């Protein structure tokens, strides 16, 4: 998606831009992301005091891989974009310097998506994960493996008792 500064200067009011873009790199660079649907962007660009501000909403659907049970699941994602551009170096690191009349917004959209995706996605809040013994997905029922969980309170008691014995 491109914002044309010459057009903005000529119109002297905000310009709206709607577009859809493919960002396949998001799935390649994030192991927990299986796939990403085309991103719908609704942007508004405005010039004020030599600065061009581009704001908008981004919408897509992400197919995540659950970090506990490794099953794929779809989740809607919305992100906000808010970037400021200038043709001159303002010294402000939050203001991106542009050369020429066109601002290519795609990398900023990709960045906003990357900052919004979940790092440890869960298919559901109480996902039971995989059995550590046999690898069965425990959301689909128990595999019958013996669960050897030691009660932490019990282990503290055991430690205390063994210390007492050594005295
Ligand atoms: Zn899961
Ligand atoms: Zn098992």
How many structural domains does the protein architecture include? 2
Low-confidence stretches: none
Strand content: 35-45%
The number of helical segments is 4
Our measurement of the CA-to-CA distance between the termini, rounded to an integer number of angstroms, reads 75 Å
Q: Number of DSSP strands?
A: 8
Structural class of the helix and strand makeup?
alpha+beta
- The helix-strand sequence is EHEHEEEEEEHH
Overall pLDDT level = 90
The share of residues in helices is 10-25%
- Rg: 25 Å
Bound molecules: zinc ion
Short description:
This protein has two domains: 2-127, no CATH class; 129-167, no CATH class.
Protein model, in words:
By secondary structure, this protein is α+β, with helices and mostly antiparallel strands. The protein has two domains: 126 residues, no CATH class; 39 residues, no CATH class. It has four helices and eight strands; from the N terminus they run βαβαββββββαα. Strands 2, 3, 4, 5, 6 and 7 form a six-stranded mixed sheet that branches. It is elongated, with a radius of gyration of 25 Å. The model has no long low-confidence stretch (mean pLDDT 90). Bound molecules: zinc ion (2 copies). One zinc ion (ZN) binds next to loops.
């Amino acid at each position: 998606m491109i914002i044309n500064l010459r057009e903005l200067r000529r119109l002297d009011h905000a310009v709206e831009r709607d577009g859809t873009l493919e960002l396949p790199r998001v799935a390649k660079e994030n192991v927990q992301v299986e796939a990403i649907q085309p991103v719908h962007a609704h942007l508004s660009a405005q010039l004020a005091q030599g600065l061009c501000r581009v704001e908008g909403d981004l919408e897509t659907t992400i197919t995540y891989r659950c970090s506990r049970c490794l099953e794929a699941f779809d989740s809607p994602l919305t992100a906000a974009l808010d970037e400021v551009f200038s043709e001159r170096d303002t010294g402000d690191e939050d203001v991106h310097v542009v050369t020429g009349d066109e601002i290519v917004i795609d990398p900023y959209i990709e960045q906003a998506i990357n900052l919004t995706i979940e790092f440890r996605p869960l298919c559901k809040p109480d996902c039971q994960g995989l059995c550590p013994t046999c690898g069965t997905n425990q959301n689909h029922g128990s595999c019958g493996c013996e669960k050897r969980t030691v009660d932490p309170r019990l282990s503290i008691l055991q430690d205390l008792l063994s210390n007492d014995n050594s005295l």
